[in-house]
Protein backbone atom coordinates (compact mmCIF):
# COMPACT_ATOMS: atom_id res chain seq x y z
CA UNK A 1 0.00 0.00 0.00
CA UNK A 2 1.32 3.48 -0.86
CA UNK A 3 2.71 5.80 1.80
CA UNK A 4 0.14 8.21 3.28
CA UNK A 5 1.11 11.50 1.60
CA UNK A 6 -0.45 14.90 1.95
CA UNK A 7 0.30 17.63 -0.54
CA UNK A 8 -0.49 21.28 -0.77
CA UNK A 9 -0.05 23.77 -3.60
CA UNK A 10 -1.48 27.20 -3.02
CA UNK A 11 -1.13 30.84 -3.95
CA UNK A 12 -2.05 33.71 -1.65
CA UNK A 13 -2.04 37.49 -2.03
CA UNK A 14 -0.94 39.92 0.68
CA UNK A 15 -1.05 43.70 0.82
CA UNK A 16 2.62 44.00 1.82
CA UNK A 17 5.81 44.19 -0.24
CA UNK A 18 8.00 41.07 -0.26
CA UNK A 19 10.43 42.70 2.20
CA UNK A 20 7.65 43.74 4.59
CA UNK A 21 6.07 40.30 4.37
CA UNK A 22 9.39 38.58 5.06
CA UNK A 23 9.88 40.79 8.13
CA UNK A 24 6.52 39.57 9.48
CA UNK A 25 7.33 35.94 8.70
CA UNK A 26 10.50 36.39 10.77
CA UNK A 27 8.36 37.26 13.84
CA UNK A 28 8.59 33.60 14.85
CA UNK A 29 8.23 34.46 18.54
CA UNK A 30 4.63 35.48 17.73
CA UNK A 31 3.60 32.23 16.02
CA UNK A 32 2.11 30.46 19.06
CA UNK A 33 -0.04 33.51 19.82
CA UNK A 34 -1.19 33.71 16.21
CA UNK A 35 -2.04 30.03 15.84
CA UNK A 36 -3.60 28.20 18.79
CA UNK A 37 -2.91 24.81 17.17
CA UNK A 38 0.88 25.46 17.41
CA UNK A 39 2.73 24.88 20.69
CA UNK A 40 6.23 24.32 22.04
CA UNK A 41 7.50 26.41 19.14
CA UNK A 42 11.10 27.56 18.96
CA UNK A 43 13.72 28.61 16.44
CA UNK A 44 17.28 27.31 16.67
CA UNK A 45 19.47 29.63 14.64
CA UNK A 46 19.78 33.26 13.71
CA UNK A 47 16.45 33.92 12.01
CA UNK A 48 15.21 32.55 8.71
CA UNK A 49 18.61 31.65 7.31
CA UNK A 50 20.22 28.58 5.76
CA UNK A 51 20.69 25.93 8.44
CA UNK A 52 18.21 27.29 11.01
CA UNK A 53 15.69 24.83 12.46
CA UNK A 54 12.14 25.39 13.66
CA UNK A 55 10.63 23.00 16.23
CA UNK A 56 7.02 22.72 17.34
CA UNK A 57 3.91 20.67 17.98
CA UNK A 58 0.89 20.91 15.67
CA UNK A 59 -2.56 19.98 17.01
CA UNK A 60 -5.07 20.07 14.11
CA UNK A 61 -8.86 20.01 14.62
CA UNK A 62 -8.72 16.23 14.98
CA UNK A 63 -7.63 14.24 18.07
CA UNK A 64 -3.90 13.89 17.44
CA UNK A 65 -0.67 15.87 17.84
CA UNK A 66 2.43 15.93 15.68
CA UNK A 67 5.96 16.94 16.65
CA UNK A 68 7.77 18.60 13.77
CA UNK A 69 11.12 20.02 12.83
CA UNK A 70 11.58 22.26 9.83
CA UNK A 71 15.19 22.51 8.68
CA UNK A 72 15.75 25.53 6.48
CA UNK A 73 17.99 24.46 3.64
CA UNK A 74 17.89 27.49 1.37
CA UNK A 75 16.64 30.93 2.38
CA UNK A 76 16.88 33.89 0.02
CA UNK A 77 15.43 36.97 1.68
CA UNK A 78 12.77 38.12 0.75
CA UNK A 79 11.87 35.65 -1.98
CA UNK A 80 12.42 31.98 -1.17
CA UNK A 81 12.59 29.29 1.50
CA UNK A 82 13.22 25.60 0.83
CA UNK A 83 12.94 23.30 3.82
CA UNK A 84 13.00 19.67 4.91
CA UNK A 85 10.29 18.51 7.32
CA UNK A 86 11.11 15.93 10.00
CA UNK A 87 9.50 14.36 13.03
CA UNK A 88 5.99 12.88 12.93
CA UNK A 89 5.74 14.16 9.35
CA UNK A 90 8.54 14.02 6.80
CA UNK A 91 8.88 15.71 3.46
CA UNK A 92 9.80 18.96 1.82
CA UNK A 93 8.30 22.43 1.70
CA UNK A 94 8.82 25.49 -0.48
CA UNK A 95 7.76 29.12 -0.13
CA UNK A 96 8.09 31.69 -2.90
CA UNK A 97 7.28 35.39 -2.61
CA UNK A 98 7.08 37.76 -5.56
CA UNK A 99 5.99 41.34 -6.04
CA UNK A 100 2.42 41.67 -7.20
CA UNK A 101 1.45 45.28 -7.81
CA UNK A 102 1.72 47.03 -4.45
CA UNK A 103 1.65 43.76 -2.55
CA UNK A 104 3.00 40.24 -2.77
CA UNK A 105 1.95 36.90 -4.13
CA UNK A 106 3.03 33.91 -2.06
CA UNK A 107 3.27 30.40 -3.42
CA UNK A 108 3.45 27.55 -0.92
CA UNK A 109 3.95 23.90 -1.72
CA UNK A 110 4.75 20.79 0.27
CA UNK A 111 4.56 17.04 0.20
CA UNK A 112 4.57 15.32 3.57
CA UNK A 113 4.37 11.74 4.71
CA UNK A 114 2.73 10.72 7.98
CA UNK A 115 5.23 8.86 10.21
CA UNK A 116 3.23 8.05 13.37
CA UNK A 117 2.14 4.38 13.10
CA UNK A 118 -1.41 5.05 14.35
CA UNK A 119 -1.81 8.05 12.03
CA UNK A 120 -0.39 6.09 9.08
CA UNK A 121 -3.12 3.49 9.59
CA UNK A 122 -5.77 6.17 10.12
CA UNK A 123 -4.68 8.00 6.96
CA UNK A 124 -5.09 4.83 4.93
CA UNK A 125 -8.59 4.31 6.31
CA UNK A 126 -9.83 7.87 6.83
CA UNK A 127 -7.77 9.87 4.35
CA UNK A 128 -10.62 12.24 3.37
CA UNK A 129 -11.15 13.27 7.00
CA UNK A 130 -7.44 13.75 7.62
CA UNK A 131 -7.03 15.72 4.38
CA UNK A 132 -9.96 17.86 5.52
CA UNK A 133 -8.16 18.52 8.84
CA UNK A 134 -4.94 19.36 6.99
CA UNK A 135 -6.78 21.75 4.65
CA UNK A 136 -8.55 23.47 7.59
CA UNK A 137 -5.22 24.04 9.35
CA UNK A 138 -3.79 25.60 6.17
CA UNK A 139 -6.86 27.83 5.64
CA UNK A 140 -6.85 28.93 9.28
CA UNK A 141 -3.11 29.61 9.25
CA UNK A 142 -3.21 31.75 6.10
CA UNK A 143 -6.32 33.69 7.18
CA UNK A 144 -4.92 34.32 10.65
CA UNK A 145 -1.54 35.35 9.29
CA UNK A 146 -3.17 37.73 6.80
CA UNK A 147 -5.26 39.40 9.54
CA UNK A 148 -2.22 39.88 11.73
CA UNK A 149 0.28 41.10 9.16
CA UNK A 150 -2.03 43.35 7.18
CA UNK A 151 -3.59 44.78 10.33
CA UNK A 152 -0.20 45.55 11.95
Describe the structure.
It is a single chain. By secondary structure, the protein is of the alpha+beta class. The protein has one domain (5-151): 2-Layer Sandwich (Alpha-D-Glucose-1,6-Bisphosphate, Chain A, domain 4). Helix content is 30%, strand content 43%. It contains 4 helices and 7 strands, in the order E-H-H-E-E-E-E-E-E-H-H. The chain has a 7-stranded antiparallel sheet with strand order 1-7-6-5-4-3-2. Helix 3 packs across helix 4 (127-151). The longest helix is centred in the C-terminal third of the chain and has 25 residues, at 127-151. The protein is globular, with a radius of gyration of 15 Å. It starts with a strand and ends with a helix. The mean pLDDT is 87.
Secondary-structure topology with pairs:
Layout: E1 5-14, H1 18-25, H2 31-34, E2 38-44, E3 53-58, E4 66-76, E5 80-87, E6 89-100, E7 103-114, H3 117-125, H4 127-151
Antiparallel strand pairs: 1-7, 2-3, 3-4, 4-5, 5-6, 6-7
Task: Give me a quick take on this structure.
The chain has 152 residues and is an alpha+beta fold. The chain contains four helices and seven strands; from the N terminus they run E-H-H-E-E-E-E-E-E-H-H.
Would you count the extended β strands for me? Answer: 7
Q: How many helix segments?
A: 4
The percent range for helix content is 25-40%
CATH class: Alpha Beta
* Span between termini: 47 Å
Specify the biggest β-sheet.
7 strands, antiparallel
User: Which architecture does the CATH hierarchy give at level 2?
Assistant: 2-Layer Sandwich
How confident is the prediction overall: mean pLDDT? 87
**Structural class, from helix and strand content?**
alpha+beta
Can you tell me the CATH topology?
Alpha-D-Glucose-1,6-Bisphosphate, Chain A, domain 4
Topology order in helix (H) and strand (E) letters: EHHEEEEEEHH
- Radius of gyration of CA atoms, rounded to a whole number: 15 Å
